Amino acid sequence: MSVFNSLPTPPAAPKKPVSDTRHGITRTDNYAWLRADNWQAMFKDPSILDPEIRRHLEAENAYMNAAMEDTKPLQKLLFSEMRARIKEDDSSVPVKDGAYAYGTSYVTGGEQPRYFRIARDGDVTDETIRTVLLDGDKEASGKAYFRLAGLDHTTDHSHGIWGYDDKGSEFYTLKVRDLATGEDLADRIENTGGGGVWAPDGKSFFYSALDENHRPSKVFHHIVGRPQSEDRLVYEEADAGFFMGVGGSLLDDVIYIDIHDHETSEYRLLSTKDLTAEPKLVAAREEGIEYSLTEGGDIFYILTNDDGAKDFKIMEAPVDNPGKESWREVVAHKPGTLIISHMAYARHLLWLERKDGLPQIMIRDRATGEEHAIAFAEEAYSLGLSGAAEYDTDVIRFSYSSMTTPSQLYDYNMVTRERTLLKTQEVPSGHNPDDYVTRRVFAPARDGETVPVTLLYRKDTPLDGTAPCLLYGYGAYGITIPAGFNTNCLSLADRGFVYAIAHIRGGKDKGFSWYEDGKMDKKTNTFKDFVAAADYLNQQKFTSYARIIAEGGSAGGMLMGAVANMAPEKFAGIIAAVPFVDVLNTMLDDTLPLTPPEWPEWGNPIDSQEEYEQIAAYSPYDNVGAKAYPPILALGGLTDPRVTYWEPAKWVAKLRDQTTGAAPILLKTNMDAGHGGASGRFQRLEEIAFEYAFAIKVAGKM
Q1: Which of 11, 249, 292, 460 has its CA 20 to 30 A from that of 123?
Q2: What family is reported (predicted)?
Q3: How far apart are CA 591 and CA 96, in angstroms?
Q4: Domains in the chain, please, with CATH?
């Protein structure tokens, strides 16, 4: 029996066929009209959206509200549970930097963070000695959407750059604040990527600017007090297929310009001794070769996959001659042990690596070469390496958690090897780790590989096939989904759910080859791995097909669309958040913000018929067919520059037209937000509560 009863007639999007011929292949898109012609301008001013498109999105929201009306009490209950697990007046442990220590905090009921500082060795628990530098709630007042981009202070601690986005479009505005008075200067830098890097003298900073297609194509140098129009162009990237960012070093003597796509990188360096100089190239981009730099005094440490080092190695080169001809190996490539990131300090080199699916922190004494590891014994866990804000230090900071263990923050002395527990995540409503089980199991894939799956469930959950399951997946860009503590999913576990994360190909969970085997012409491995995880959970009676609700967002939303087409009978429901489902049309539109930089991940169907056909074979929108789809909830954001709102809108329209089943297909468009959804911490919980309410409803557990 359907859990959705007495629904109104769903919206039926008009069909306005548009044909497109590429490589001699003609496709017809009935719903192309949902893509606003003025999307670039609309991201900055949503009020100019075409009225017909707005009416359709609002009709979809009304239908979705009718279908989910009976879950409103459940949504409120879930929200209250999730909120009760958050320490509302929480505060970070401040990070020492010079004469001060900097941190963030929240006030009870507050949605946005506050940035504060105290004297370097001040009592971190004494709120009366804190100086609030930036109050996010105050800045967000009266705005439907507001997201901060952080606060970066000058070397002398007198001023700070802070950024905000109040549309959800990810065009950030930068301002300069006098940290002594709390007042902003007249400087206002528009259309940036969200951050800036101060020059050592604190009189100017560097930032990346976004072009009209939302690509960070230029780096500028801004002198405080002058208008943005006078900013000097430092570097312009001519290739629309590359992202670009700007950063600084702990020693304040170099500005990094990082240019990269998903498989190739290039760095240009600007010495802060001459801010008017042209940035110098380190190593010219070579397709498939990645590298990144961190400074170690008179040398750079370079993390790279050059010369066949698929899982990366660490090299060194002199600061005054960092070119590839000077690179010398420091940490050798070890197949199967992926080096994720690296940092350098006065006496130590450290890196975060992953082996057998689990992370560990490695530390090397730069003088002696002696190495040791920071590792943990749980079956599945997550590590975060934050390092330090100062170069001349022996103490770094890292975090640890597991699906059952709340996050723990440590200071670690790299000389004495002592760990100091600074903070354990509080769960005000209570949490007993002994009530839950976390496991790492391995699902056999069709080609003989095994797919890691992390599980969380209550000890008293029956493992006889009757438990509902929320199965989460992503599988793209080499991103690894950590097996960390998540207070929200406890609301599902406490209702008898098995919460599962499928660590599928396309991520780097099992090394770089795990990523390579889930991209381009091997992309379908990602989808097959997810179905294999569902098969395994069904066979081992952790759950059953009739009780699995699949969830994924963005590229994970593409995964949702693909498995809905491949195996709709194996899922009781599907939640697709900001889903990248119109893959072929998007990769054919080189005006969209992310299209050229994404070609190395998915393929370039404009230039290559082979890659066109590869994408066409799995693109969820193009492969919707006459079959019985399960209940589907799609979520979009009107001003989303990453996965544009029309992707889920078109997908839902086509699904509803094609499905042979009676299950509802729902679309929820946030008319005030973009890719990340609501910006406030409690507003975000409301969205999660909504998604979980859908899962619980579909599972028949209301």
Answers
A1: 249
A2: Belongs to the peptidase S9A family.
A3: 44
A4: 428-543 (3.40.50.1820)
Is residue 383 within 8 Å of residue 398, measured between CB atoms?
yes
Closest of 317, 312, 477, 363 to residue 303, by C-alpha: 312
pLDDT digit string, tens, across residues 385-441 = 999 999 999 999 999 999 999 999 999 999 999 999 999 999 999 999 999 999 999
What is the DSSP code (8-state) at residue 251? T
Distance (Å, whole) CA 300 – CA 254: 11
Sign of CA dihedral 107, 382, 483, 148: positive
Query: Beta 450-458 vs 469-473: how paired, if at all?
Result: unpaired
φ/ψ (deg, to 5) at 351: -150, 155
Query: Distance between CA atoms of 190 and 171, rounded to whole angstroms?
Result: 8
Residues whose CB falls within 8 Å of the CB of residue 274, separated by 6 or more in sequence, listed in order: none
Helix-helix angle 524-539:609-618, to 10 degrees: 20
SS3 assignment, position 138: helix
217 is catalytic: no
Per-residue pLDDT reduced to its tens digit, 497-547: 999 999 999 999 999 999 999 999 999 999 999 999 999 999 999 999 999
Among the options 29, 529, 622, 640, which is catalytic?
640
pTM: 0.90
Question: Helix 524-539 and helix 555-566: axis angle, to 10°?
Answer: 70
Contact 55, 662 (CB under 8 A): no
640 tagged catalytic: yes
**If we measure between CA atoms, which residue out of 413, 436, 409, 441 comes closest to residue 423?**
409
58-61 long-range contacts (CB < 8 A, ≥24 apart) are: 58/671, 59/11, 60/11, 60/649, 60/652, 60/666, 60/667, 60/668, 60/669, 61/667, 61/668, 61/669, 61/671
Phi, psi at 439, each rounded to 5°: -140, 155
- Separation of CA 556 from chain center: 11
Q: How far is CA 85 from the centre of its chain?
A: 23
3-class state of residue 672 by DSSP: coil
554 is catalytic: yes
Tell which residue, 465, 439, 461, has the closest CA to residue 452. 439
Q: Which of 554, 582, 622, 679 is catalytic?
A: 554
